[in-house]
Amino acid sequence: MINKFKITIDDNDFEVTVNETEHNKAKVEVNGISYDVRYENKSTVASPLTRKVAGPVAPQVQVQQPTTTTQTTIKSPLPGTISSINVKVGDEVKRGDTLIVMEAMKMENNIMASSNGQVKAIHVTVGQSVSQDDPLVDLG
Q1: What CATH number has the domain bearing residue 104?
Q2: Which pick of 20, 22, 81, 117 has the fewest CB atoms within 10 Å?
Q3: 67 inside domain
Q4: Neighbours of 7 (CB within 10 A)
Q5: 3-state secondary structure of 18
């Protein structure tokens, strides 16, 4: 089950997507950064004598910050086919560098780095079809 939230903590807005994957485990994306989390569900059930059941309490989620620098995932802006990959894992890139060229609607689209960083992972191959919002490249 996927849930999307917009939350505010200390006057900072966050877009949060929660995808429950297993019992008490979930994948949580906060402003585009993914985390694996475990949560504790504290729902309460009254004794059989009263036959009333209390509503579930919101689960408490504990998020661990990544031990490395902030990672950014560059996602596909629209459906298309990967024409070329201009970087490899370990490359240092600057904001605006073209990472991938993608053909969509009979046009070539340059997918550029949104920030300076190092290529941590490439999620696609040349010739692969992608959908909108599919992960293409991770920068760290």
Answers
A1: 2.40.50.100
A2: 22
A3: no
A4: 10
A5: strand
CB burial string 29-49: b at 16+ within 10 A, e below: beeeebbebebeeeeeeeeee
Q: Give 47-78 as a DSSP string.
A: -TTT--BPPPPPPEEE-PPPSSS--EEEE-SS
Digit-by-digit pLDDT tens for the chain (140 residues) are 667 777 777 777 777 777 766 677 777 777 677 777 776 655 544 444 444 444 455 555 555 555 545 788 999 988 999 999 999 999 999 988 999 999 988 889 899 998 899 999 999 999 999 999 999 999 98
Q: What is the pTM of this model?
A: 0.51
> Following DSSP, what letter does each residue of 108-120 receive, concatenated?
EEEEE-SSSEEEE
> How far apart are alpha carbons 35 and 29 in whole angstroms?
6
Taking the CA atoms of residue 85, residue 86, residue 91 and residue 92 in that order, the dihedral angle to the nearest 10 degrees is -130
Same domain, 7 and 57: yes
